[in-house]
Every structure is written in structure tokens, then in C-alpha cells.
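Aim 2 progress update. The chain analyzed this quarter is reproduced below.
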Amino acid sequence: MNRPSQEQDAHQPSESGSAGAARPPRGRPADVEHLPIAPSGLRGVIANLAAPLLFVIAAAGVGAVLISSPPHVPKAEPETLAPVVGVADLVPHDTEVFLEAFGSVVPSRQVRVMPEVSGRVLEHNDRLEPGGLIAAGEPLIRIDPADYQIAVAQAQADLDVATHEAARIGARIETLHGRRAQLSVEVEYLRWNAQRLGRLAERDSAGEQESRDAVTQLESREAARKTLDAEIAEQRLAVQSAEAAVAVAEQRLEAARLALERTSVFAPFDAIVVTENVETGQFVAAQTSIATLAATDEFWAEAAIPIGRLGDIRFALDDEGDASRVTVTLATGGAAVEWEGVALRPLGDLDPLGRMAQVLISIRDPLGLNEGTSGAARRVLLGSFVKLRIDAGRLHGVFPIPRKALRENDRVWVRTAEGRLAIRPVEIVWRRHEDVLVRNGFQPGDQLVTTHLASVIPDMPLRVRDGGAGSAIAAADGAGAAAGAEADPASGPDPAGITP
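Predicted C-alpha cells:
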């Protein structure tokens, strides 16, 4: 029953409290008496919501004012820095170009030596061994000539017999001709005498018998002359047979003498011995190979080049005085030995592997015999794999472009006269190891961009690296020429690996 009094005590301060000397009620903190006491009922709720609501409304108003009137800040264009690049002047050149190829050395002439007669080998040239050098006309082997000397003697005897028989028959014919001439004279006389006696018998019957005897004698002599003519004709046939026998005997003698000469086998030309398989005392049969010789005055190198480049080579077959010069290089133990050659002629078929054109390169005096330098280091060995640098003429008005400055699809980057980037397609006429040679595609004032950029935009500004335009093109051209790098044709990739 005393709860109201407690509430009253809770909401109203006591007298002692108003005097400021009383202590706070039991069980309540000392600062509670300073807290505001919420009004009771609807008025208290409104009072509690009014302050936050007014704050939200004010913030919304301020935000609306700020959005409707943003600050006007002047826009500044961002500063773009043009990339710095290296450039090279584009200067047309007249330059010699070369085809680079590889080939194998083969003999220009090679023969297998075969004796034409059989027999036992009596003599054998000491230099007839692999690698030996033999001069033209020098004897290689000598076969026992005894049997062939006998054959010559027999053929000579047969010829003598045939000649004697032909002479005998010829003499017989001459004798018969003499007898016939005598008979002819007698026949003419008897014919005249019979005619004379016939005329006399017509006038006097006492001469009829003499006339008949004269006619009978004339007929006998004419018959004898006919018999003699038949014998002469027969002897003429005999002499023809005798003369044919003489001709046969002469041919047999010539064959025997030729066989005797062939017992000695000689070198057909200045040669190096490739193979040899004969010894003294060995019996050799005719048409059996005893050695293989290769000519030493000239070797050939067979090279494969792209078909499209045949027109760039001047062959000695067309004009020997203007044939393309070729430098033949052979690596020997870390050192390179060079020879001069000429483009001889193209072969009539394609390389079966790379389907490329094959050409012959002539290497004169490959063993250095004419220069007196026949040491092993100066020899081009048969079967060697050599590098060939073929003169392909001279190109006029071309621009050497370093390979590093050539972009995709045969394009280059240039800095125009206005200092901006341009991407230009070029026509590649020759490819070399270090650079390519191009025509057209440039305008006055263009400079080649040699620096690689991660991304490019046509007409973007460019700045030139300190030092201005370099001489990279001329340097690349000089280095390529000095190193013999001009080998790359412009006709695409090389299937044989001849070009890089």
C-alpha cells in the first residue's frame, strides 16, 4: 500500500534534497538524479523523435543543394609523352648480291680403266695406287706381249702368201692378154686372106680349095681367141678373190699389231687414282676394270638453288667470258681454304629431295698442280661438302633494311617528315643474313624506326633518341657484305636450309 509513496519519492526531491545537504536514495547512483525524465504518453514519443527527424531533413536539404550546384573545376588535357625511338636514314644503294649454297664435289671426268686384251701383268706403275697422280700418256700396266707378237708374225705370213697368189694370178692374166693380142692379129690377117682368095675363086675355079682352107683356118683361130677370152675372164675373177684375201690378211695383221700395242695401258688424261685393283703377275681379262681415274684439271660442285634464282646466274654455257664467279670454301681443321670457280651450266633435272634446280660449278686446277701448291691443305677432295658463294649481279637503287627493323607481313615502321609513325609495306627483292634489300614503299623525309615498341598506333608522334639518325643501315649492309652474308633470296623460305 505504500507503492505510490515510493513513486512520489522517486519523481520529487525531498526537502532535504532541495536544500542540497541530503544523500541520494538508497540503491541509486549519485548521477541518476541529473538524467532527464522522459515525459509520459504520446507527447513523450513525439518529443523523442523530433530531434533526429529534424537532423535527417536538414542533411537531405544540404545534399540536394550540393548536388544541384556542383563545383565548376576547369578540365586539363592529360600530358602525353611521345615514345623515344632510334632511327636510321633511308639511303638507296647499288650493291652486289650473292647466292649462298652448298654442294658436293664430283669429278668432271672419270673413267674406269679396262685392258682390251687378256694376259699376265708384267709391269705395274708405282703411282697406280689410290691418291696417286698420273700424267696423260703415262703407262699404267704392261701385259705379256709374247702371244700377240706371234699373232703379228702369223698375220704377216698370211699376208705375204695372199699377196704372192694375187701377183701370180695377175701375171697369168697379163700373159693371156699377150696371147690374145697375137691371136687377134692372126685372125685379122686370115680374114683378109680368106676374103682375097674368095674373090680369086670366083674368077678361077682352080682356087676354090685354097679359099675353103683359108676360111677353115680363120674359124679355128677365132675359136681359139674365144677360148682365150673365157680363160681371161676366169682369171680376172681369181685375181679379185686373191685381192680380197690380201685385204683380209692386211686387216688381220693390223688387228694383231693393235692387240700387241694394247698390251700397254696408258692414262687417257692427267688424273688422280680413285681406286686400283691390279698387281704385277696377276692375270687380267679383257674388259675387266683395273682402276678408276678422275681428271685433275677440273672438278665440279653440284649445288641446289631455288628455281626462281636461275635467272640471276650467268652461265659459261651462254657466255664463258661473263660467267658468274663463284667462291668455293672448304673448312679443313678449323681453317677455311678458298678456290675460285665459275657457274658452268644448269642440270636438266631437279633435286629429288628439295625440288630445287641443280647447277654445276667448275673448279679449275682443284689440286693446285699448276700453281705448284699441291700440298694436301690446298686440295679439293672429291666428295667434299663445300660452301658456294655465287655472284648474282648488282642491284641498283635498293634500301638495305636490318632484319630487326622488318615487321610482320613485310612491313616497316618509319618516322615521317612530320615526326609521326607510319607503317609502310615494302617489296623485298633480296634477303641476306643481316638485312633485306627492298624497293619502294618510302616517301621523302622518311626515317626507318629501328626500336621495337610494344604497341604502335599509326600517326602517333615519335621522338628521336639523342644523337639523331644513326647509320644502322649502312653498318648492317657493310657487315653483311664483309661476312659474305648475302645469300637469302626473296622468294620465301628455303626448303633445303640454304638461306637463314
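The chain has six helices and 24 strands. The longest strand covers residues 385-402. These observations will guide the mutagenesis experiments scheduled for the next reporting period.
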